[in-house]
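Entry 14. Ran structure prediction on the chain below.
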Amino acid sequence: MPIRGQTDDFGVPLNILGRHPEEFFSIMGRIVTLSATLEHQVLIFYQYLVGRDQNAYTDWPISKLIRSARKELERLPAPDADLAREWLKEADVIRKLRNEYVHNLWPAQSGGRLFGWSPSNNEKSVMTTEKTMDDMRADLDRLIELLRVPRLHRIQGLVSGGRHLQR
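Output, structure tokens:
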């Protein structure tokens, strides 16, 4: 069946992306949106960790916030630092996953496969990734787990009182 001239439910011509299941776009949107929430939580964590106000470091990318926060974890007692280190490690994994989703082109594939590609920085090669809808669901679940309120409150509680700054 030709797709020339056809559009999806949102008016996007099918000859641009092909025919993806609507769940693909729903999960992609949630990954993008929740990743922005995670970036904000990492920013807040770092601001509290180093004792700065809410206007500080707002122009830093999440990669720099994570890297800088890791260098400052000695301000915390060892068990708290370990917990924060693990959270930041997981946040960095999610950051990379988010970038993989956002910066790849995802032409529709047959058989439910998802194939993403983008030119590499040196423009002489192409970076590719293959996923399934199950992979996307698992990535979304991983992100949700990182943002679950009890866990997030525990992480932010490590630094929000400022006790680590009163040594």
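The helical segments are 14-17, 22-50, 62-72, 78-103, 133-147, 149-160. Will compare against last week's run tomorrow.
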